[in-house]
Amino acid sequence: MSTFTSTLPDQLLEKLSQKAKELKLPKNKLIEKALEIYLDQLNKAEYIKSFKAAAEDEDIMTIAEEGMAEYFTQISEDEAG
Fold this sequence. Notes:
Blueprint (H helix, E strand, L loop, with lengths): L9 H14 L3 H29 L2 H23 L1
């Protein structure tokens, strides 16, 4: 594991210390978990943005609709067969 040194505003460090005490966690573990959650949220936001962009792209929507039509045809054939 690597070591990382940083500075934080006093007010934020006080909040961190207080919450770490409440949760009975070391501050570094609380920061680690918070950073993991934050980075996951950033990734989710990127996915949402890309899906919204895809929804506005006529070519992508046409491909998706064609794919769904094929999927429904295959399901119908499987049910009949």
